[in-house]
Amino acid sequence: MPLQQIINITWQHNNGGTDKLSRWIRCLFSLALSERDIAVQLLDQAVTIAEDARKVRDSTPSICSSDDLIQVISSPLQQSKPYPPEELEWLATTTFNRAIDFYCTSQDVPCRLWAEKALALSNLCEDGGALHEVLQQKYQGLSWHP
């Protein structure tokens, strides 16, 4: 798929930058909503990228030698920006809405899968857990079909 190749190339040549990458993921995700497997793979990819960017940001060493500092500064991963918050929020809410679409048609298995993906994404939002809490409450409020 050409758009997936664009995402891969952007990731490889963008030194860990997530701005363009997140927009490509949004574009491809929007196009792939009807193709469940592809859409779920994109969600997993977004979660991985957001987690990796967060780990890099949170793991900046506090005390290091000058050699270590040079290595840290030159590392493409250390130049990684966090996944754009508006993109994470959009992915989480769109994914949760898709879960509700499945719920409304009594498709419990895909509903649970998509809701759990939405919760994973919302957990990465840096909003003090607000979106995650809202989605978690709505998810817990669903009653499952026999």
From TrEMBL:
InterPro entries: Spo22/ZIP4. GO terms for biological process: regulation of synaptonemal complex assembly. This is Uncharacterized protein.
